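TA notes. Do not distribute before section.
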Amino acid sequence: MTADSTPALVQVADADTEGPAPAGPSAARGPRARNLRAYLQYVAARIAGAIVSLFAVLVTSFFLFRLLPSDPVKQMTGGRPVSAEQLQSLRHQFGLDQPLWKQFTDYVGDALTGDFGTSFQFHAPVVDKITEALPATLLLTGTAYVLYTALGIWLGTRSAWRNGSRGDRFNTAFALTLYSVPSFWLGLLLIIVFSVGIGPIPGMFPTGGMESGGGSGFGHLLDVAHHLVLPVITLVAVGYAQTLLVMRSSLLDEMGGDYLTTARAKGLRDDDVRRRHAVPNAMLPTFALMFVNLGHVVAGQILVETVFSWPGLGGLFYQALSVPDLPLVQALFFVFATAVILANTLADVLYPLLDPRVGR
């Protein structure tokens, strides 16, 4: 989001108005009322844009997965010999024998009421399958989100404030390396080293899944945490690098500001100048990135969840795509896109409140 793309939130009073400016509370309420009205118009425009985007995603999700060459009915029969009559019966059962336009109108009409149909492979309502897998995704990606956001901001701040030092060069090079590593490759590497074991390093963590089963109470929590370690490390290693680089770049831009020189001239310590002045201003681009990443918390991490056999939305999407289970992949695609769109819209709405300079 840039200042050029954001509508002006501050309106200037007409310079041709005759007579002296009114005094008193009404004079103060006038500009505030106009600013509030302009901001509400801005919010309404953003919400309208989000609604249009959501409808576009709804349409795209229907046609995109019908381009796949796989036949869902034949995939579900598992290669077993099936007569043409049985195949036709299954297609009729799933509604695949109807004209495409009829399938599309039924899909959009049902989706607008929250009904995404029944899964082909699980024979259960799609909404129920998504509801079952969502907590596992939120646990994994939510834990990783909190850790890599805090780590990235902290290391990015330290690196920028000590620009050019040995620690800055190491942090930047390490972050760039991890940022370029595919998450699924890093996950497989961690499984080989810390789950299977290699050389003197024994296998210490499970190769996949969310729990071993058979536990209860505090023991069950420890079991889940044990399974959580490697996938969280994978997500944190890749995610913190982006936050670090953005935070470092933003703080370096702020460090040349005259207001920091003024703060130092007033006798403030260097740590106070950084904490009270430089970092809050440098946080604005990082704030936007945090909301973008927040959308991915719900969207999950398909590759990481698949590598670690994590029973979340990402793993469910992979299973549905292998058929393809059209109702399920359509619904999951819509959920993933909706989470990202809503997170970006929320960032757009809140950003002008944090930085009044936006839109001037």
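Switch to the second chain here.
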Amino acid sequence: MTTLVTTPSEPRAPGAGRLYLRRFARNRAALLGVALFALLVLFSVLGGLLTPFAYTDADFTALTQPPSPTHYFGTNQGGNDVYAEAVHGLQRSLVIAVSVSVLTIVLAAVIGAGAAYLGGRVEKLTLAVIHFLLVVPSFLILALVSHRLAGDWRVLILVLTVFGWMTTARVVWSLSTSLRERDYVLAAEFMGVRPWHIVLRHIIPNLGSLLVVNLTLGVVATVLSETALSFLGFGVQTPDVSLGTMLADGSGSITSAPWLFVFPAGLVVLLTVSMTLVGDGLRDALDPTSVSAASGGAR
């Protein structure tokens, strides 16, 4: 997962959210990313209403047919409607990507900040586990586990989460070691506030910019990971469909039936570009030292 490092800040003023929103709204590229992502979400949710075919339906009278008024994106070798598969595949990939990104950020924040604040043996043990998992060949383990469990997308979410939180947690720990010495943390300790309450209410919220941006960029990383695993046959398995399985099915017929590859590839590109633009916009809006923030967000 891509990890952005930012400098932790003091507790924000009540009007900070509006300032960040204004900075973000002045970033045209970021707004374009939001619009693209919103359209993709709408397509995944409502796109199925525009076709009478389900992604599991097979039209044996139209095998490997190019796009037509009946089959908008054409059909594959089994007669399945590629448009219906694209709608379902995008929906499945979005569910996996967003779920994994949220879960990994939550794990990274709690474990990294908790280890930094508690210190001592807890910190040493946590860092030892993180460093061990970082050197483990996670891709091979992901492939083995998901293949053994028949490519269930819920299992894929679990294994991607288990092996995706360490890098961000390491960065969170590093920044939290400075936050634990801030005056507001020391004041909370003096008042007898419980350790985990301090972690959840005083340390993690002041890493908000880091977590929000990495949450966004984590969606991109997860989409690419899921696509790669499914493309290699270790991710989502038939009869279910994801963008990765569609790319795998279409890769062997790029010259004879290019629509089988072009449409899912286009969705992957649009999803990746949209979330990258949003992530860059959030980074610029939340980082007061960025060029766009200093210039009022102009592009």
